[in-house]
Amino acid sequence: MRAQFVLSEIGVGLRRNLTMTFAVIVSVALSLSLFGGSLLMSDQVSTMKGYWYDKVNVSIFLCNKSDAQSDVNCAKGAVTEDQKKQILSDLHKMPIVERVAYESQDQAYKHYKEQFGNSPLSSSLTPDQMQESYRIKLKDPKKYQVIASAFNGRDGVQSVQDQKGILDNLFQLLGLMNRAALLVMAMMLIVALLLIVNTVRVSAFSRRRETGIMRLVGASGFYIQAPFIMEAAVAGLIGGGLACVFLVIGRYFTIDHGMALATKLQLINFVGWDAVLTKLPLILATSVLMPALAAFFALRKYLKV
After folding, report:
1. pTM over 0.70
2. Residue extents of the structural domains in the chain
3. For residue 215, what are the contacts with CB-CB under 8 A and spacing of at least 6?
4. Do 284 and 237 form a contact (C-beta atoms < 8 A)?
5. What is the fold of 57-140?
6. Where is the chain membrane-spanning (predicted)?
């Protein structure tokens, strides 16, 4: 097969169906951008889970004098020194506990003022209204229920709270957003495939006389198909290249510069450039293979003379 012939036919096909080719390029670029973005979102969620689950604590809040008057769990009064010592002793005996930190009422009040100092409620609070607590780091964050069942309802304990539950809600929301992006990507991918099939069929129909003559003189099916398949692959590759550019620009302007989320949200460990760069070859490979296969199956009936 002469490469010059194939290249000339690719150029003719792209110019002849310029509008549809442009639509294919845009559809492929948008769908693969969403595909790459979804992969990065999955990496981001996994990174955040590993980072935050490692820092998650279980908190045992102890009864104070105010709770004794208003909370059923503290009906027997504020926590005593003996009860605190017993709780701490029991925690140290549990094999799932990695470490325990105590937070006094004064420390709790200080932390509250640091986080919610502008709240109208903060001016009316006093340290004696805050709760003492034990902050427990578990070796396995999934074992929260062991702590909850051991200390919920115990004298002097107001409540047992698991920070992992709050994080789970956040990650569920991120997961839903990621699935929504995948759904939109699938719809765009279907549109792109339909455009590719229609573009190839229009191109094949407009050149049916030439392909018929080539078939009659003994040209192989692959020889006839190659220009059309390569035409679709080139259009897809251009779309894939644009998708890669969109991902790189999106990462650069949302995290590093522009919105600068990495600076504004320092508590979030964002995915690095290595995660972006590893997705680009997959996007480019998909952008070539997907249109080429669609063109191959769309052309089969046009090879019959």
Report:
1. no
2. 3-53+168-303, 57-140
3. 224, 303, 305
4. yes
5. Alpha-Beta Plaits (3.30.70)
6. 21-41, 180-200, 221-249, 280-299
